[in-house]
Amino acid sequence: MAIENSKETGLGYRQKARVLGLLLVLLRLAALLATATATVVMALNKQTKRETVAYVGTTPIVQTFTAKFQHTPAFVYFVGANAVASLYSLMVLLLRPFMKRKSHEIFQHLGGMVMVSVVASGAAAAAAMAELGKKGNLHARWNPICDRFDAFCCRGGVALIASFIGAALLMILNAVSTITLLKNVAIQD
Q1: Which of 116, 107, 114 is nearest to 181 (CA)?
Q2: What pLDDT tens digit does each residue of the chain (189 aa) get?
Q3: DSSP β-bridge partners for residue 52
Q4: What is the extent of the structural domain holding 97?
Q5: CA–CA separation, 51 vs 57, rounded Å?
Q6: How many domains does the chain have?
Q7: Which residues have C-beta within 8 Å of that of residue 57, sequence separation ≥ 6?
Q8: Would you say residue 148 lies in a domain?
């Protein structure tokens, strides 16, 4: 009877481990997709407008204005942070079959914590600049630009949402990873 119970418990443990492993892979894949989407959308974000700035007689003088993500250091950091997190997630997914030792899991967990903070800080910096672009700053006499570059701001908003989703997924992934590490340590004791 005890042997049968231990076999059932062992089989249940293996099934739980497989489900947990699949959950970790799916969460990492979703985080990869979200951060890669944020990277690509913001990196390709550019809008050009031509406006008449003056008239000389009856001839209009037209000037071209361009909004690009490279014009704002916070957006450049945002793209870099999401790109690094995407590459990290891809690397972990590709190297997962070779990283079975406990030390690899710990370094993977620590790297995950770093990626959460990098993505969250990049998204926060970009969100601050997006707020400035949307509302401006009356005290500094900075006018909002989203009324003129609406497509640029809309794509930037999509990238921000994707990045915040990626940060949340990385945080959930990190929490599940922590619980898994703690349970594995408890089982060994």
Answers
A1: 107
A2: 444 444 545 557 678 778 888 888 999 999 999 999 999 999 999 989 998 888 888 888 888 988 899 999 999 999 999 999 999 999 999 988 777 776 677 888 889 999 999 999 999 999 999 998 888 888 888 888 888 898 999 999 999 999 999 999 999 999 988 887 777 655 655
A3: 62
A4: 21-188
A5: 17
A6: 1
A7: none
A8: yes
pTM: 0.83
The answer to the question of residue 164 being in a domain is yes
Residue showing tokens 């672009």: 133
Amino acid at site 44: L
Amino acid at 19: V
